Structure to design on (964 residues):
């Protein structure tokens, strides 16, 4: 039972990757990639969780209160920013692909091969 | 490869990868039994050392502030990249989209936008005291502007957020963060070393240079999102030779 | 703490931010000048860092957070000569690229310069960092900058394909990295590399550690472009603007391999040292596979940029094999090889850029004979090709000599012939292209070369007008000359080995970083290559020339020779080419396969 959150992260990762590999629409591909990225948030935050721990914010709780790990939260914050930036760039590319070729199917955008 | 071959290759690989990953996570400490020293040490010393009650903000802007500098510039670079990718060729005319006519929607939107602006500023300002911070508040601020477009029209949105001003804010935010770090260098300590009075824990006047970094990142994040909105909205507004 | 350490990252970042904020108000040449100044300053400072770290690492704790009781609280830069030298290489290539790109990107204002400067900062930060999450941040920063730059020529389809494939594949690689980092953090509670190593001291290599290392390896190898993670590289490098390719091919690909060494030695060498042979086999095997595949695919290209992209992949294979030997000499040799090779490939890309600018075309067959009007570029091609072949004693010879000796030390005597074969393939192809373009040799048509269809509605790559010759030719020749001449630095091989040995000594390294204990200065052993490297170098050079001639005159061989082996090779060659389909779904499937295979092999050999 105690490894379920980690297994969940693995499952989300696999599902996201499946979406990327089988996608027929560039927008769907970007969203699948975002899903795969969110698996890392789940993993990081689950690793830092402490039983009966509160948020690491001591504004209204005394200093020594048991709290969860703040470092993974900072890491996840960075991770979220990275996801957003990649998604925005890929969406811009998808938009341009649609404008130039009229298609959004990743299987058909390819112009170079071999 | 045909699609079937590809899916087959992926299915086999993913099954193997999932098995390996599950084997790996079995070696992690039980959920809820985080053991590592890093977080525990920081939880116990951060408030005392930096007079900031939000330890996550202390980690983001002080202990691991250099990571955040990189993160700022990731956002910065992606916005520049989007601007590069969505740039317009000559010959594409601008056609403005329709405006909302209902007064109720426009009034409500304006009211909410003002509220969001206030909320965003509050979240930014209290970032090192309570949950929030430059990133979170910056996004809220940007959404206030987006609401102007949604409940009003494109022209008002563009009037409120002209590109040269946002570009400047973007550069100033990202550069400002780096400049704060350089100030520490000039003061003779390490890059991004906290300086300034630590003040009283729990009040706005505390945590040394963390507030400056907080504000710089809020400026940068809100400007970045505004630039992204503008770039993408321009795609809607601009159509090649369309009446 | 040395105040110079953060500057290679801070200077380009501040310049980029400044250009963005003031770009609307400054004159037209401001971005070119600012870019060159910032990149040159970064190069100079990185070189100074090399000199200052000769005896012991420079450790810099950001925010002033020095470790407490052996626990690292902040982010550290861990500067050693091998890393600083790569930072200097990055700076030099970006400077050359800015000079070449004078007025190239006027229409996009400051965007090109800003992105390149942030890219430079990301590369120097990535290579100097001693914290695994900090490395991830700079890894992503590098990627994000390049996503935009690769898709620069948005009017055409190919750049879109290249950029999409690049972005999706590299993001999947970054995810693998992040998974690995999370696992390591969960086990050790640390993000600083030497601290991870200290915590893992004496641990058994269990499932978590093996898989974490496998994921980290896979993530970095995606960036480096090793097989089977390499598909995006040929698409992306073929469509990026030339000034960007110079930097991508010259240094970015190699940073992924440097990172493998950088995480292995401080963090994982203690855990896996007992089973190092298995790891060595996996890495060297992957390297050889990459080298041979890269060289083979390069031979089948006629688009010059795609050709050089596969040459890059081929050399990445050589470097992976060098790092994979897991010895100090191997690491030293690889770094020196990377250094010389980076300058040479950068110069070759600039030579291609000169051709494209003059002739408005980048196809080897269509350019046949037209290079006669640009003899300087031809000279760059010839010298670059010979340098890549490892002509003793120039350029890449020193690095490959160290790798050959190191292979002998660990009993991998079969490795040097294979690596020589790979460099024959890559250098030979470069020489073939050069001879065909600048001397007009060879057949006018060759159907075995991949034909890139040019759609009727697509105009040729839009290239800016005339630029003064020194700005055009200067950077290319300068890079080639430096690449060839580096080998003559006195005592380089011995000292590089000594620097690499600092990595091997993990406890001393940890003491230095976490407790500030400065190790005593060691003396540099002199390195005598012996006869074998000279023999291999000569074989490689002669072989490359012969292979080039084969490539040029293949169809004039007696029909008997053509029919038998030719038909034998045609089938597999066509299938290999078909694998490079340009479809992103295929590429991600291969990345998944590669990650699983790599981690699976590690699981089998490391326990």
């Amino acid at each position: 039972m105690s490894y379920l959150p980690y297994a969940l992260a693995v499952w989300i990762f696999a599902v996201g990757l499946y979406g990327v590999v089988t996608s027929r629409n560039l927008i769907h591909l970007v969203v699948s990639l975002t899903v795969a990225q969110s698996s890392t948030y789940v993993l990081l935050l689950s690793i830092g969780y402490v039983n009966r721990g509160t948020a690491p914010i001591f504004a209204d709780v005394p200093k020594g209160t048991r709290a969860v790990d703040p470092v993974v939260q900072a890491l996840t914050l960075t991770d979220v920013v990275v996801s957003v930036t990649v998604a925005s760039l890929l969406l811009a590319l998808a938009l341009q692909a649609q404008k130039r070729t009229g298609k959004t199917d990743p299987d058909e955008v390819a112009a170079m091969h071999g | 490869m045909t699609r079937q071959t590809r899916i087959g290759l992926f299915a086999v690989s993913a099954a193997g990868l999932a098995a390996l990953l599950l084997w790996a996570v079995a070696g992690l400490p039980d959920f809820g039994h985080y053991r590592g020293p890093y977080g525990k040490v920081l939880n116990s010393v951060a408030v005392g050392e930096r007079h900031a009650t939000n330890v996550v903000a202390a980690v983001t802007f002080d202990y691991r502030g250099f990571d955040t500098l990189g993160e700022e510039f990731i956002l910065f670079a992606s916005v520049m990249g989007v601007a590069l990718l969505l740039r317009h060729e000559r010959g594409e005319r601008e056609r403005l989209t329709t405006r909302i006519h209902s007064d109720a929607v426009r009034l409500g939107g304006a009211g909410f936008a003002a509220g969001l602006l206030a909320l965003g500023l509050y979240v930014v300002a209290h970032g090192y005291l309570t949950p929030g911070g430059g990133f979170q508040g910056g996004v809220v601020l940007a959404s206030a502007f987006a609401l102007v477009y949604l409940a009003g029209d494109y022209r008002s949105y563009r009037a409120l957020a002209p590109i040269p001003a946002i570009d400047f804010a973007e550069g100033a935010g990202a550069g400002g963060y780096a400049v704060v770090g350089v100030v520490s260098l000039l003061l003779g300590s390490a890059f991004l070393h906290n300086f300034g009075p630590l003040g009283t824990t729990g009040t706005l006047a505390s945590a040394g240079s963390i507030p400056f970094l907080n504000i710089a990142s809020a400026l940068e994040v809100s400007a970045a999102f505004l630039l992204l909105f503008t770039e993408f909205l321009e795609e809607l507004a601009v159509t090649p030779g369309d009446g | 703490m040395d105040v110079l350490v953060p500057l290679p990252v801070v200077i380009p970042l501040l310049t980029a931010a400044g250009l963005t904020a003031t770009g609307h108000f400054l004159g037209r040449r401001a971005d070119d000048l600012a870019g060159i100044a910032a990149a040159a300053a970064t190069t100079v400072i990185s070189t100074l860092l090399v000199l200052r770290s000769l005896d012991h690492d420079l450790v810099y704790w950001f925010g002033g957070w020095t470790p407490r009781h052996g626990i690292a609280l902040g982010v550290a830069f861990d500067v050693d000569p091998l890393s600083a030298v790569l930072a200097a290489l990055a700076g030099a290539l970006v400077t050359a690229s800015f000079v070449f790109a004078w007025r190239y990107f006027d229409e996009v204002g400051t965007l090109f310069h800003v992105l390149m400067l942030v890219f430079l900062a990301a590369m120097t930060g990535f290579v100097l960092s001693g914290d695994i999450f900090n490395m991830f941040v700079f890894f992503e920063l590098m990627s994000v900058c390049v996503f935009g730059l690769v898709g620069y020529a948005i009017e055409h389809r190919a750049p879109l394909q290249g950029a999409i494939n690049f972005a999706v594949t590299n993001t999947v690689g970054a995810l693998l990295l992040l998974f690995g980092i999370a696992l390591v953090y969960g086990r050790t509670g640390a993000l600083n590399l030497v601290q991870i190593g200290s915590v893992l001291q004496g641990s058994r290599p269990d499932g978590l550690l093996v898989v974490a290392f496998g994921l980290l390896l896979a993530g970095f190898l995606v960036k480096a472009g090793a097989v089977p993670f390499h598909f995006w590289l040929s698409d992306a490098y073929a469509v990026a603007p030339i000034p960007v390719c110079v930097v991508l091919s010259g240094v970015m690909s190699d940073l992924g391999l440097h990172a493998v060494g950088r995480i292995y030695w401080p963090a994982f060498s203690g855990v896996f040292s007992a089973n190092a042979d298995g790891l060595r086999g996996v890495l060297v095997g992957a390297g050889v596979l990459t080298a041979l595949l890269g060289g083979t695919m390069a031979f089948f290209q006629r688009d010059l940029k795609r050709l050089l992209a596969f040459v890059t992949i081929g050399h990445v294979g050589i470097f992976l094999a060098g790092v994979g030997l897991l010895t100090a000499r191997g690491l030293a040799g690889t770094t020196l090889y990377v250094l010389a090779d980076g300058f040479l490939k950068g110069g070759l890309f600039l030579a291609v850029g000169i051709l494209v600018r003059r002739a408005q075309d980048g196809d080897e067959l269509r350019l046949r004979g037209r290079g006669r009007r640009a003899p300087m570029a031809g000279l760059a091609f010839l010298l670059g090709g010979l340098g890549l072949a490892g002509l003793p004693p120039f350029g890449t010879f020193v690095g490959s000599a160290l790798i050959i000796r190191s292979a002998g030390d660990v009993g991998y005597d079969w490795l040097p012939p294979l690596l020589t074969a790979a460099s024959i393939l890559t250098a030979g192809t470069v020489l073939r292209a050069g001879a065909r373009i600048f001397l007009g040799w060879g057949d006018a048509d060759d159907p075995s070369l991949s034909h890139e269809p040019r759609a009727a509605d697509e105009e040729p790559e839009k290239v800016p007008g005339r630029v003064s010759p020194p700005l055009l030719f200067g950077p290319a020749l300068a890079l080639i000359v430096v690449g060839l001449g580096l080998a003559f630095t006195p005592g380089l091989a011995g000292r590089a080995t000594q620097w690499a040995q600092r990595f091997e000594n993990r406890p001393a390294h940890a003491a230095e970083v976490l407790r500030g204990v400065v190790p005593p200065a060691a003396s540099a052993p002199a390195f005598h290559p012996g006869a074998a490297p000279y023999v291999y170098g000569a074989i490689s050079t002669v072989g490359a020339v012969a292979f080039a001639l084969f490539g040029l005159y293949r169809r004039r061989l007696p029909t008997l020779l053509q029919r038998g082996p030719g038909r034998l090779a045609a089938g597999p060659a066509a299938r290999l080419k078909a694998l490079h389909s340009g479809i992103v779904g295929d590429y991600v499937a291969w990345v998944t396969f590669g990650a699983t295979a790599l981690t699976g092999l590690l699981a089998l050999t490391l326990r």
About this structure: Residues 53-239 of chain B form one domain. Strands of chain B lie at 93-94, 238-239.
